[in-house]
Write a structure and sequence with these properties.
This protein is mostly helical and about 140 residues long. It has eight helices and no strands.
Length: about 140
Amino acid sequence: MATKQIKPELEEYTLRIKAFVKELELRQQDLANSADVKRPTIAAYLGQESQPSMSTLSKWCRDFRLNGHWLLTGEGEMLLSNKQGPSVDDTEEDPIVKRMREAQRILADAPPEVLYDVIKNITQGDTGKAEPHQSQKKAS
C-alpha cells in the first residue's frame, strides 16, 4: 500500500487550522456549522484528506475573527482582535480575505485539486487578480 504524500505547505496549513480550533476550544461541529458543511467534511480537512474551499475559509475568518494571513502563511496574529463577535467591516479590511473571496468566485466550478495552487499563490503574496485555472478556460 502506497504511503500518502503530503506537501509540506498543506501539512503546516492543517496544523494552523488545528491550532485555531484548539485556541478557541471549538468542536468540529462548530466549524461545520460556520461553513455550512457536514462534520465528516471537517474531519477530512483535519486529517489532510481534503482541503477547505475558499468559501469555508472565508466563513471561518468572518465567524471566528480568524486572521486569513496567519491561516495561510503562519505570519501575524492568529485572531484579528479580542472583540466579541464578527464585524463585517473589520473582516473586509483583511486583504487575505478579499483575495480569498476573489479566488472563491473563480474557483466556483474548478476541480478540487486547483485549490492548493490558489493557496500557494495567496501565501506567496500575489496581490494581482486571480486568474482562472487552465481547467476553467474555454477553448477558443
